[in-house]
Design brief:
The chain is α/β, with parallel strands linked by helices. Helix content is about 40%, strand content about 15%. Helix 11 packs parallel to helix 12 (about 235-250). The longest helix has 15 residues, at about 290-305. Keywords: 4Fe-4S, Cytoplasm, Iron, Iron-sulfur, Metal-binding, Pyridine nucleotide biosynthesis, Transferase.
Length: about 300
């Protein structure tokens, strides 16, 4: 074990801290985390922890969500510069307010990939793992859904409700990279591989996939499948996560990125050095307005009440 990992572990123990990391984090961050998961899994873990300090290795909205669910705890993020999720910032609160005025009969579901002030205006939040179930749980015929238009498309195919995307072209810049040409190219190279893509991919890519799954869903599918080859249509670090899980079982499977340049730059801002500093200096702390926390928690709790 390296010296820096030892120091991180010692600081965690001294301060009763827990490290949560998203599936898109660097390998060294995934290895030192107490829990690695997708947005839904991290929401659940954040709510369940009895630690005094939560160190969140992810982008801005994720650390905010942990704070909303743990307003009495200190929530830290190891980096504060250039850590914003571009998609989350595509749906500011004023866009939601305007859409609600235009569609007063609609309920609002926002992706957890949104800022706290946006969540505070929603009836419920969702993740890519449960978006369709959250929408179908609502007692309404029309749903304002944002910010990812492609996830809205995924939901629209699984509900009888009218889905109105807000904003009109919300998207994840990483998943927008994937094209039909990419699918055709990799399928030619690996004709026996299953294609797994994320619901943030464009509709035409989703329609060509064998399975459209959240990152957590992709992990479970690969681990439980009898197949040996998989094309992974999401951020490349998910392949790292799956390989770490395969290490535990001793299984060998072939994992092929749909695109090798599918990289989320903000996710890569966190390093071991920054995690150590974060624990030692207890920075950077997430602070939110109490009224925002109260309202946003209602939307998140509504999501968590929906059976997976």
């Amino acid at each position: 074990m390296s010296d820096i990992v030892q120091r991180i572990n010692q600081l965690k123990e001294e301060k009763n801290a827990v490290i949560l990391a998203h599936n898109y984090q660097r390998e060294e961050i995934q290895r030192i985390a107490d829990f690695v998961g997708d947005s839904l899994e991290l929401c659940i873990k954040a709510k369940e922890t009895d630690a005094d300090i939560i160190v969140f290795c992810g982008v801005d909205f994720m650390a905010e969500t942990a704070k909303i669910l743990n307003s009495d705890k200190k929530v830290l993020i190891p980096e504060i510069k250039d850590i914003e999720c571009p998609m989350a910032h595509q749906l500011p609160a004023e866009v939601v307010r305007r859409a609600k005025e235009e569609h007063p009969d609609a309920m609002v579901v926002v992706y957890v990939n949104t800022l706290a002030e946006t969540k505070a205006l929603a009836d419920a939040t969702c993740t890519s793992a449960n978006a369709d179930r959250v929408v179908n749980s609502l007692d309404c015929d029309k749903v304002l859904f944002g910010p990812d238009r492609n996830l809205a498309y995924f939901v629209s195919k699984r509900t009888n409700k009218e889905i109105i995307p807000i904003p009109e072209d919300g998207h994840c810049y990483v998943h927008k990279k994937f094209t039909v040409e990419d699918v055709k190219r990799v399928r030619r190279e690996y004709p026996n591989a299953e294609l797994l893509v994320h619901p943030e991919c464009d509709p035409e890519v989703q329609d060509l996939a064998d399975y459209v799954l959240s990152t957590g869903g992709m992990i479970r599918h690969v681990l439980n499948s009898d197949k040996k080859e998989f094309i992974i249509g999401t951020e490349c670090e998910l392949i790292t996560r799956i390989k770490l899980e395969l290490e535990k079982t001793g299984e060998e499977k072939v994992l092929i990125p749909l695109r090798k340049d599918a990289i989320c730059d903000p996710m890569k801002r966190i390093t071991l050095e920054k995690v150590e500093r974060c624990l030692r200096e207890e920075k950077y702390e997430i602070t939110l307005d109490e009224e925002i926390i109260k309202k946003a928690r209602i939307a998140i709790e509504r999501m968590l009440s929906v059976k997976i």
